[in-house]
Amino acid sequence: MSFLAERVKNIRPSPTLAMLGRAKELKKKGEPVLDFSIGEPDFDTPQNIKDAAAKAMKEGFTKYTDPRGILELREAIAGKLCKENHVDTEAENIVVSHGAKHALFNVFAALCEKGDEVIIPAPYWVSFSEMAKLCQATPVILHSKGLKFSAEELRQKVSGKTKLLVLNYPNNPSGVIYSRNELKKIAEVAVENNFFVISDEIYEKFIYTGETYTSLASLGDEISRLAITVNGVSKTYAMTGWRIGYLCARKEITDAINATQGNASGNPNSIAQKAALEAITGPQDSVKKMVAEFAKRREIISKGLSGLNGFECEKPMGAFYAFPSVANCFGAKAGSSSKLASFLLEELKIAAVPGSDFGKEGFMRFSFATSTDTIAQGIERLKKHFG
Ligand code: PMP
Ligand code: GLU
């Protein structure tokens, strides 16, 4: 193994994708697995979006495009950010990539190098720490008392080496959302210490508490120069397989990312770009329907999980994950949530992702991007053991 580059030696495979793989394997063998592992809307991509892709193919829109994405799409994204998110931006500040994952990786690649520290508040989405490591930066995990961190807790983690903070709200896995006031305080710490902030807004439409969404970059000129907004069409339009994500940042950053992407992958798929354009500019009623369905599932799963012995489950504010504390049934010692996940999968045939994979031991993530029927059966199965 010594021929491998240092930077890939400590990279773990994505645990969410790994758990999905294990669940699928067992299903293939005929095991009655109920899958709560993956955060992927179970709805089909809306027809108007598929039609736009078919039209693009028919019309021969099948060639290389501008590596940072077609101008029409970047203008539409800039327009969406101005109108919906109050982020004052234009097409030159946008890069379209191969999913939000790729957009995020591009940011780490453009900004991070050896010696840099990246602050990642826990619980965090599984890939942030690995992306930082791949780009030779050091992840600094911010463990807070609850599921939310405060500006004060953030301040304690800042050092002269801090290059980047990774914010994600609604949060995967906790569903936590930060209010305008909380974000202002976080922005103050970033501005005072002059570090960049990724604001991963991929779950912005999935909010169940009636709160309005505040984008970090909308909070004034100073923070907008340091903010990199990341979003995409995977979750909002049930388009996970189409692989279109984007970022919005100041021009020095988008120019560097354009050059990187132009060499590393070239343009994102031309047909998927046309589909994403329709998603963003076309009718939005399918989004409302999907969010309303998720809101119903959120009620059922939170109530069901709270009724189990040893589980404590607050209703998530957003995203589509329930993140109960399981410390009272399985303990919060290192390794306990992954033992519980193995037990659930092997004994109860329930696939869920351990909190430890998100940097939060004593918790378990159940994705409710699955049917109400699966949720009801899952709760019944869990009740037999934890009832
Ligand atoms: N950010 C977060 C917080 C996510 O949960 C995901 C999951 N897919 C992504 C980014 C990446 O999304 P995409 O499918 O657009 O790569
Ligand atoms: N983000 C989703 C999840 O957390 C999809 C899988 C992944 O990309 O990690 O389940």
Textual characterization of the structure:
With 387 residues, the chain is an alpha/beta fold. The chain folds into two domains: 6-44 and 285-386, Aspartate Aminotransferase, domain 1; 48-281, Type I PLP-dependent aspartate aminotransferase-like (Major domain) (Aspartate Aminotransferase, domain 2, 3-Layer(aba) Sandwich). 44% of the residues lie in helices and 13% in strands. It contains 15 helices and twelve strands. Strands 2-8-7-6-5-3-4 form a seven-stranded mixed sheet, sandwiched between helices. Helix 3 (47-58) packs across helix 11 (270-281), helix 5 runs parallel beside helix 6 and helix 12 (285-306) packs parallel to helix 15 (372-386). The protein is globular and about 55 Å long. The mean pLDDT is 96. 4'-deoxy-4'-aminopyridoxal-5'-phosphate binds at residues 39, 99-101, 125, 168, 172, 200, 202, 232, 234, 240, 245.
**Domain module count:** 2
**CATH-defined architecture of the largest domain:** 3-Layer(aba) Sandwich
| Oligomer status | single chain
CATH fold topology of the largest domain: Aspartate Aminotransferase, domain 2
Please estimate the helix content: 40-55%
The profile of the biggest β sheet is: 7 strands, mixed
Question: Helix- and strand-based class?
Answer: alpha/beta
Mind telling me the C-alpha Rg?
21 Å
Bound molecules: 4'-deoxy-4'-aminopyridoxal-5'-phosphate, glutamic acid
How large a portion of the residues is in β-strands, by DSSP E?
Answer: 5-15%
Spatial arrangement of strands, main beta sheet: 2-8-7-6-5-3-4
- CATH C-level class of the largest domain: Alpha Beta
Low-pLDDT residue intervals, each spanning 5 or more residues:
none
Averaged pLDDT: 96
The 3D shape can be described as globular
Q: Name the CATH superfamily assignment of the largest domain.
A: Type I PLP-dependent aspartate aminotransferase-like (Major domain)
Got a strand count? 12
What is the element string, with H for helices and E for strands? Answer: HHEHHEHEHEHEHEHEEHHHEHHEEEH
Number of helices: 15
**Terminal-residue CA separation:** 47 Å
